[in-house]
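User: Can you predict the 3D structure for this chain?
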Amino acid sequence: MKSLLDFLPLIIFYVLYKNTDKADANHPLLSLFGLSGGVNNNHVLVGTLGLVLATVLVYGYLFISQKFRLEKQQWLVLIMTVGFGGLTLALSDDYYIRLKAVLINLAFALGIVISPVFIKNKEPVVKKLFGPVLALSPQGWIRLNWAWAGLFALMATLHAFFAFVFMGGEYWGEFTAFGDIIVMMTFMIIMFVVLRKHFKLNEHA
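Assistant: Here is the predicted structure, written as structure tokens:
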């Protein structure tokens, strides 16, 4: 349920992004909040407004349902979304919202790499996450930790590519809405295949 809620703001972003005219500077949603439209990026601005509002509502709900606390990664997503989304809307410049996902994924990659410094017993963060289901050697956990860091570095690179390089960002909205899901699912399938013999469930088979 929580994972589905995490993707709800992206779904709302995509629906608004795809159904708003780029040149519609007087979109009702922008007007409702007293925001100025842009020249030809109003589909991004309207989508960003929907993203920010949905993120605040979703994480507000999670904050209450999780006994008035959010996990570190949830705080990061919330702060980055509101911060970069707010800049985008205030300046009518979609550069900032395009940059958000790049920086979030880079932050996750860096956090995973340096996690052994801050975790008890100097263990990689992936061992804390997957320890209950995987049996790996210390070197195996280090390799898996680097694999996850590489995943987020790859997603940061892909976000940068689609936002700023490929066809002038024409398909950035599509990748923002679905890219992370596709890349993550592909990675999880590969991880399952490669590590299938190390799942603890096999011990009882």
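The helical segments are 2-18, 28-32, 42-65, 72-91, 95-118, 125-130, 138-165, 172-194. The mean pLDDT is 89.
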